[in-house]
From TrEMBL:
Gene3D superfamilies: Fe-S cluster assembly (FSCA), P-loop containing nucleotide triphosphate hydrolases. One of its GO terms (biological process) is iron-sulfur cluster assembly. This is Iron-sulfur cluster carrier protein. It comes from Stenomitos frigidus ULC18. It comes from the Bacteria.
Length: 356
């Protein structure tokens, strides 16, 4: 134990403190910077690997505790920032300039709450300070514009050199492009594979995304052309599979999971939506409408993490309908807390994979 107070002794006592997800020393990971000491007041910057770090407070507390073991320390002040690592490049995939991590939110079947999860995870990450974009590639139900309060918005087209580029819409801290901006919502559209592929590629490469920590893609349900196009075009940081506890939904999600694994896309985990119902007038009650623990069983069987369980809550649907996602409209509700924790877990796993 050092018996003096200087920059090197601060780094020495901080060396055993690990990033709990990466299991490596914060000092070795270059996460401790700008150590300064003035009259017993120690300050430094802690650079996390994601602004949505689920263990932020725990890491800060551990750092403070370690530094306070040094003699003559009066105060410890930790300035927390984040630098999200960029996912690893793949030789046969073309990344998007400035976009660090591309994530797919997928489901085996429709109506399980995939868009609800995509929108709320995007907003929760933005709330934490991340730069976030969302591609609503769901041709069957392009709900993201409504859920983000951007219904009726239009993407502007600009000429950039020889290329036309789309300017995304923006609300609640999230940049959005959507199939809903391109099609009349009352007009049935028959999508052919090549057409859909073309639009997905346009959404990836011809949008003025700027710098993004996370680009989230709300996929159409099922295992079709869109998934294939996405996985073969860009390097993917991972896919998240949304399911409900019913066994049919779980069967479909197994299929989705296998598909991503075959395409070489890491599956970050499963989200179980509509896990149980909390009656608004009896919040202490919990009803397992679709059975219970299905997501947990599937996650165990397929050896992927269960990222979280979201209850059925009326306010969650209302938030979506009003264009104010529940993580903003009612952050203290059970579903908002679950969604925020899911966003943090996703961000944590993406960082771990990028730095592995
Ligand atoms: N946990 C929940 N509690 C209450 N309502 C929910 C919940 N999850 C989703 N919903 C509601 O269910 C409907 C369908 O959800 P959502 O559009 O997110 O599903 P989806 O899987 O994206 O559907 P689609 O396949 O049609 O795109 C929406 O009205 C949404 O607000």
């Amino acid at each position: 134990m050092p018996n003096r107070l200087d920059t090197s002794s601060v780094l020495e006592v901080l060396k055993p403190v690990q990033d709990p997800e990466l299991n490596k020393s914060l000092v070795d990971l270059n996460m401790i910077r700008n150590v300064a000491i003035a009259d017993g007041n120690v300050s430094f910057t802690l650079v996390l690997t994601t602004p949505a770090c689920p263990l932020r407070q725990f890491i800060v507390d551990e750092c403070e505790r370690a530094v306070k073991t040094l003699p003559d320390v009066k105060t410890v002040s930790v300035d927390v920032t984040a630098e999200t690592p960029t996912q690893k490049a793949l030789p046969d995939r073309t990344g998007i300039d400035g976009v660090k991590n591309i994530l797919a939110i997928s489901s085996g079947k429709g109506g399980v709450g995939k868009s609800t999860v995509a929108v709320n995870v995007a907003v929760a990450l933005a709330q934490a300070g991340a730069k976030v974009g969302l591609i609503d590639a769901d041709i069957y139900g392009p709900n993201a514009p409504m859920m983000l309060g951007l219904e009726g918005a239009k993407v502007t087209v600009r000429q950039s050199g020889a290329q036309e580029v789309l300017e995304p819409a923006f609300n609640h801290g999230v940049k959005l492009v959507s199939m809903g901006f391109l099609i009349d919502k009352d007009q049935p559209v028959i999508w052919r594979g090549p057409m859909l592929n073309g639009v997905i590629r346009q959404f990836l490469y011809q949008v003025q995304w700027g710098d993004l920590d996370y680009l989230i893609v709300d996929m159409p349900p099922g295992t079709g052309d869109a998934q294939l196009t996405l996985a073969q075009a860009v390097p993917m940081a991972g896919a998240v599979i949304v399911t409900t506890p019913q066994s049919v939904a779980l069967l479909d999600s197994r299929r989705g999971l296998k598909m991503f694994q075959q395409l070489g896309v890491p599956v970050l985990g499963i989200v179980e939506n509509m896990s149980y119902f909390i009656p608004p007038d009896m919040p202490e009650k919990q009803y397992d409408i679709f059975g219970s623990a299905g997501g947990e069983k599937t996650a165990q069987e397929l050896q992927v993490p269960l990222l979280g369980c979201i209850p059925l809550e009326i306010s969650l649907r209302e938030g979506g309908d009003r264009g104010i996602p529940i993580v903003l409209a009612a952050p203290e509700s059970a579903s908002a807390k679950a969604l925020t924790a899911i966003a943090e877990r996703i961000a944590g796993r993406v960082s771990v994979a990028a730095l592995a």
